[in-house]
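retry 2 of 3: previous attempt timed out while embedding [4Cu:2S] cluster. Reduced batch size to 1 and resubmitted. Inputs unchanged:
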Amino acid sequence: MSKESESSNNVSLENEERRKFFGKTALLGAGAVAAPMTATMFATMAKANAAEAANSATIHPGELDEYYGFWSGGHSGEVRILGIPSMRELMRIPVFNIDSATGWGLTDESKRIKGDSAHLLAGDSHHPHMSMTDGRYNGKYVFINDKANTRVARIRCDIMKTDKITTIPNCQAIHGLRVQKVPHTKYLFANAEFRIPHPNNGLNMDDVPGYYTLFNGVDAESMDVSWQIIVDGNLDNTDADYTGKYAFSTCYNSEGAIDLTGSMKAERDHLVIFNIERIEAAVKAGKFITLAGSDVPVLDGRKGSDLTRYVPVPKNPHGINTAPGGKYAVANGKLSPTVTVFQLDKFDALFEDKIKPRDTVVAEVELGLGPLHTAFDGKGNAFTTLFIDSQVCKWNVEKAIQAYNGENVDYILQKLDVHYQPGHNHTSMGETRDADGKYLVSLQKFAKDRFLQCGPLHPENDQLIDISGDEMKLIHDGPTYAEPHDCMIVHRSKVKTRKLYDREDPTFAGTIAMAKADGVNVHTDNKIIRDGNKVRVYMTSVAPAYGMNEFSVKQGDEVTVVITNLDQIEDVTHGFCMVNHGVQMEISPQQTASVTFMADKPGVQWFYCNWFCHALHMEMRGRMLVEPA
Ligand code: CUK
Ligand code: CUA
Ligand code: CA
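retry 2 succeeded.
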């Protein structure tokens, strides 16, 4: 049974006193200050405000967080789970990387899941997003892109393991990734960033105007690519609307340049809007081509196509974010100090050619320098990261529209310093209909002086901000390792995980099928099967012993060790490591896992359990005898 956190009752007496004292000062601080405040007084007050907010969000030892935070791991290639508001790292999910602890990328099961890219040991994960039903998280999957190797992956939320990885054909560098929100996540929308020649055969490097890139619809269940759309310019970030009809992507290189200055020439690049119904109809009608090396339908969505519309947006825009009500989406100007607000119900008229592309823009207002990403509180306010200003800007969307229409209103509500140079930010439940306006996480690219020095390489700094009141309050600094681009914050009620594996879990079904073909029941048998120079060693494990404490093979054999953990007690995970063979893996309760290696060294080779499982964990070991050839 989950223990409820009682965060609000933990304010200490000392802080209670401080609150009374500073409460009065804070009232004055907002507007007309009676007597000038010194810098020290201001700093002290800010500290006390932060301390008060932090206290209300403190998760004490043994208490559970209210939210799961899913963080990408950037060029570490993984996904991480944090607890919010504690910001404690709870788990790492290896995806595109290899992981020594769990054997991800080493085990036969993970190689099967990685498929055609199993030989790739690196990745660059950017955008984690959970599957939805009717604009709400459904707790089923988390998807993540790999910019480095043009892949998308799926994590199953019941076991928090990657279960599918797909390489997207015909393009390079999947960057923006979001899910279809409504009626449910039928598609992942995946932007390929870099324009390349087609065919990319080494004969047409200089035909730069002929380069193009593709917007991709990936089936969320099969993880196959359903269709690809040729676009003008390149593609950066993407999001979807709340009707299921549209997805849209920012483009920073409408110039089609191959160098830095070239991609900054135009004052406006664009947002490209994709009409999902028309795309599906065109695929159905067979109005597509295929490109060398795949049979995925490729449609032409370049300017003039009825599948897309292009809306000019200043300048090298980066993030695109749909507001929880579904009425607006916001493109973030990056090299322009502006955000551009689109009214999404105008897209129908745009596709019917009743209005012009820019007629969908209802506001384009200045916020500050380097707007990158925007998050929402579900109460009409938006929070935009200003990379160059090192701030989060809180602004009101309706007021921005009024100001854009010439009314004299202040749409900027507050600017909060963050440390330093934020990229993405995310609010609790903020990309869904359930946006609750409680927390904002701002992901800073630089930590500078916020933590103890650890050499020339610094961590990043993820800051937690309380947005429940009128004022944003910074309450936590959280160092992270390279390089979470993005995160999402999911209420814990949406996530139901298993405590033990199902014995028939599909992630190791291939291994169980292999055992069946060998006449082995992995849940009862400890057996060696020789198949030419391939040897399969099946063993069980129950703390603190393997079902087999010795076995023999011949030098030159390819050995597959298959272990099934029969323990039924939550948290009793075993490991398997064959010393001097670069082989190790996790075997959680009721899981079957396997790893294959060459027995190339004659002699006695010890194996041992490397997940601490029992008082006699050190003693959980055995010998492989390799007879000389
Ligand atoms: S991107 Cu890195 S800060 Cu890949 Cu979403 Cu904007
Ligand atoms: Cu089994 Cu440690
Ligand atoms: Ca540009």
